[in-house]
Amino acid sequence: MTGAEVIPFAAVLGIIGMLFGFWKYIDSKLISVRVESTTGVAAAQALAQLARSELAEHRLHVAESYITKAGMREQTEQLMDAIHGVKAAVDSMALRVDRVVENQGKPISRARP
């Protein structure tokens, strides 16, 4: 082969080699980005799972510890009924005491004339 035949072949081979090297450089960068993103996704999924479990624990705690509005209303009604019962008992007791006092005779004076 002569120099005139080798130069175009070497130039084409150099261009192909340069393109292959450029492709390998880009591919290595893409692979590193994929690995980093996979690691980041795994960490985000673990954090999301932890948040879900903590939220479930908090919901359970709230359901066990706190009362609903309807439950509070029911308890308030029961307390008010009990207070009305005590008030009625006190009122009837006052009426009974008044009747006892009214039914007593006049006191006898013990003074000597």
Describe the protein.
87% of the residues lie in helices and 0% in strands. With 113 residues, it is mostly helical. The protein folds into two domains: 66 residues; 34 residues. The mean pLDDT is 88.
Helix % is over 70%
The assembly state of the depicted protein chains is single chain
Q: Could you give the order of the helices and strands?
A: HH
Coarse morphology: rod-shaped
Compact summary:
The chain has 113 residues and is mainly alpha-helical. The chain has 2 helices and no strands.
Helix and strand topology:
Elements: H1 3-65, H2 69-103
Salient structural properties:
113 residues, mainly alpha, 87% helix, 0% strand, rod-shaped
